Amino acid sequence: MNRLPATIRALHSADGLHLLELTLCGQPCTAFASAALPPWQAGQAVEVLFRELDVALSTAPCPTLSIRNSLPCRIVAIRHGALFSDVTLHSGGATLHAVITRRSCDSLALHEGMTVYALIKSNALQLLEPTP
């Protein structure tokens, strides 16, 4: 599970749904919530959790994709299995992981030192109050 620090920039609520604008790894991101929120406010530090399997990788920016959370990253390590590859990424001072198929890793010709974009859907991000 990826667990990264973030800051809330803005909150929008309507019809029992919530969209939170965040700064994550120095980049603007959004998180979706359908449950009642703690009394969070703009400027508050939070932690964001998301599964390694919820991270897609692209070798170029994807401005026409509906996934708006795009973190520019540098690949620092790749561990290949028979079916899947665990890609360790560095973005904005944080380390995160993506687990993708070995076939995708090979077809994208991913390698250490390469710049990629980690794509994460808004509904895959879970927010927690930071641990002291």
Automatic annotation (TrEMBL):
**Pfam families in alphabetical order:** TOBE
Name the keywords, alphabetized: Molybdenum
InterPro entries in the record, alphabetically? Mo/tungstate-bd_C_term_dom, Mop_domain, Transp-assoc_OB_typ1
Q: Which residues form the Mop domain?
A: 64-129
Sections of the chain in a coiled coil: none
From the Swiss-Prot or TrEMBL record, give the protein name. Mop domain-containing protein
- Species for this entry: Vogesella alkaliphila
Q: What is the lineage of its organism?
A: Bacteria, Pseudomonadati, Pseudomonadota, Betaproteobacteria, Neisseriales
